[in-house]
Specification:
single chain, 41% helix, 225 residues, five-stranded antiparallel beta sheet, 2 domains, 8 strands
């Protein structure tokens, strides 16, 4: 890979910290509150069913408290694992349209690879392919070169979360190119996507909800300018 990889620079902002990611954060918090409400209701029902004359020892009380904390924490962690859009390996700088209307310079897009390092995706859109050597998925360029950018995830390329990540990254790249005045063959890219997997015709979150990012409106804004 030609691009420099390392830590995320200070001018970059992770996707989860952006305004467009707030619905996913609110959804996670809402589900978490519902889970804790139901969990607390279940505990109240269980403890209210215990004989009122039973006086537990201090040791059993401590064990019960530890078990409650453990079960509650495990449930919250499970909900987090089932919310992949809280962990999108994407970052943009302040000039990117994902940040709003701030356009003081060139927009940048960076992605995080499986080893935790961040790298500039460079020119052109990206796609996934299976890593036949060590397993998981490689991030490659979606052009005639299919140049490898790096190992992206230990998950296979068919994993639903990775498909959502790639769609978001490609949207970020297209908007970056629109801001920077770089020619982006959007129409030809759409034709490739329809011919290959038809991924963009499917729901963003078939198992959860839809991502309410409107790239068409943003693209039309740049076309008018």
């Amino acid at each position: 890979m030609g691009e420099v990889r390392g830590e995320l620079s200070v001018e970059m902002r992770r996707f989860i910290s952006l305004e467009i990611a707030r619905p996913f954060v609110y959804r996670f918090i809402g589900i978490l509150l519902i889970y804790y409400f139901l969990f607390a209701g279940l505990l109240y029902f269980l403890f209210s069913s215990v004989d009122l004359f039973y006086q537990p020892s201090s040791g059993s009380t401590i064990l019960a408290a530890i078990a409650i904390i453990f079960i509650g924490s495990f449930g919250a962690f499970f909900i987090y694992l089932k919310s992949p859009l809280l962990r999108v390996p994407l970052a943009v700088n302040l000039n990117h349209p994902f940040m709003g209307d701030l356009e003081y310079g060139a927009a940048m897009v960076m992605v995080q690879f499986s080893d935790g390092t961040w790298g500039d995706v460079g020119d052109g859109r990206i796609r996934l392919t299976n890593d036949e050597l060590i397993g998981g998925s490689l991030l490659i360029r979606d052009d005639e070169t299919y140049a490898v950018l790096g190992h992206f995830s230990p998950l296979p390329q068919t994993h639903s979360a990775l498909k959502r990540y790639v769609i978001l990254i490609n949207q970020a790249i297209a908007l970056r190119d629109a801001v920077n005045g770089t020619e982006d063959s959007i129409e030809s890219a759409r034709e490739r996507e329809h011919l290959e997997s038809g991924l963009l015709e499917r729901s963003w979150l078939e198992e959860q909800d839809t991502i309410e990012i409107e790239p068409e409106g943003l693209f039309s804004k740049f076309r008018r300018e």
